């Protein structure tokens, strides 16, 4: 616990106050920015800044030319730091009782200017790690010149208070009969889909991938014929070159891309669906040559009902009728049934796509029926969809058959 002081003891709403050290640290670690208050030449100043906590010290990032950093030279700078996480808006029947759910930390003290280069470097490393665990090892560390241009304030966490509100609407009993909506609108910070900078070829780091459940985790899967890797925007050029064939796109749900840029848009659509939790997308690489040969996905992912569908699969023509597609499906089925505990895996294909239907049947799936006018084709016509599925009871025999077939198939040279 932090000991209460005159500056951290409120005059009202004392029930919302806490001096719990763990609660304060949790707020400081979750929030990404803070307000730094100080006085310069008798005038109040408040600046937004970045912060990171290391132990019981709060570090604040700044520039060597900024007012607070200049003022902190010598004996230090008296400051007040406020950090808030907004959890919700509270709508009451009366305007007076509208409120917010939040968790906030206020810290008072004298901040010192960090002059030790090792301490400054440790702070910057911790700040980078805060935005992504492992990020510091995947980036260039600051040079001596950059360190010299960066100023850091260190505030010992001694005089600290936590204020929080949670729960529902609190209003006068006389207002409860009013015909106005009341309740709480929860708020949270959510990450959008990562947007790579121009020229980036590195795959998306694991800490930026949204894995809601193991079912949504696009792990790399290895076989003798094929390797499935998480789909990435950097794959556009290779994927376009491998699949730039009218016959490949004949029965697919999107128009054939005419340029690598349009293939990048197809990838972007897949990754947007993946970010929403609707899909897990892989590229297929030939295990023997490393060449990118196509893509495939999970979709209709339902961990509660323990079911998933396999689709959005297309493969360059040179790799048709090789072991690549068979083993890719084997890897996806093995992950679904053996690793994730699925009880059902489904496929959907255009009723016109006879070749795809035959391939699915060779996997050991059962044709369950036709979904009439199920989806719209790129040309605007309505497609009837043939639905197949394999259950966990059928999986052992299907797996044995697929493995035996692969033993008779020579890897691609």
From TrEMBL:
InterPro entries: Acyl_CoA_acyltransferase, GNAT_dom, Pyridox_Oxase-rel, Split_barrel_FMN-bd. Residues 226-393 form the N-acetyltransferase domain. Pfam families: Acetyltransf_3, Pyridox_ox_2. Signal peptide: none annotated. It comes from the Bacteria. This is Bifunctional pyridoxamine 5'-phosphate oxidase family protein/GNAT family N-acetyltransferase. PROSITE patterns: GNAT. It comes from Micromonospora zamorensis.
